[in-house]
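Hey L., structure's done. Input below.
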Amino acid sequence: MLDQWLGAKTTEGEVIPMRDIEDQLVTHVLGGPYALATILGGLGALMASYPRIMRRAQQEIDDALVRGILSQPSPLYSECCQLQYVSACIREALRITSTASPRWRSSDRVLNLLGQDTRPRTAIATSPFAISTSKSIYGTDTNLF
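Output:
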């Protein structure tokens, strides 16, 4: 996998910066079984907290089984991707139950972040919580599942 990343090019044919490759490595290492368990646990808790959403997701699955869209006893990933409502629930759980680790950066120039100018070489990190609850990205109801 590392060989593929090191040999990868951007759409403009440029070498991918090492920092971007490091980000991908960290994402894959931290995105292991514990992160998956956290996200699945979060999805289960969210679905249990919202019975109407759970019923709608279950109905979509039942309908897909009746129409023969899902293989039995174990549907394929590609088949499951056709379940639009269930997929939306999973994406929403990923947003709300973020397991991402902040990645620190600095810049050689002044950056304006949320109306504040930073000095060059100031350490900056992202907050998964701040991103996942950003009203400018996700709208005014970011506190809802």
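Residues 17-145 form one domain. The first helix runs from residue 2 to 7.

-- N.
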